[in-house]
Amino acid sequence: MLQRSESHGNWGKRNRKRLAPGKHAHLLSYNGHLKLLQTLGTIKRKFLLSGYPSALYDKHAEKFGWCKREIRIDNKASAKKVKEIKTECLWANYELPLEITPLTRLIQQQLQGIQGVNC
User: Of 5, 60, 84, 115, most Cβ neighbours within 10 A?
Assistant: First the structure.
């Protein structure tokens, strides 16, 4: 989890531990996350960003007036029989539904518009 107090050098090392082996080809550095958030703050088109809870992302969401929703999900990447419950966050520069079912449908509709993505 990225925290504002984390040093830039520890960000990548700390978060690599949570990743399933071979599942992520690229990771953003702390500065990469800052650049992404600052860029998203300037765009006029809609965006939907997902990730784990982050004070840095929340700070930018508040700064730019983005909407945030949290969804509790089981950790499907885990090899354990009983999956740990995780919180997935969605940030958007437009209003998101409050309930999970309409939110899931909205995400699926948006993903269907991206070439090569099947839901």
Answer: 60
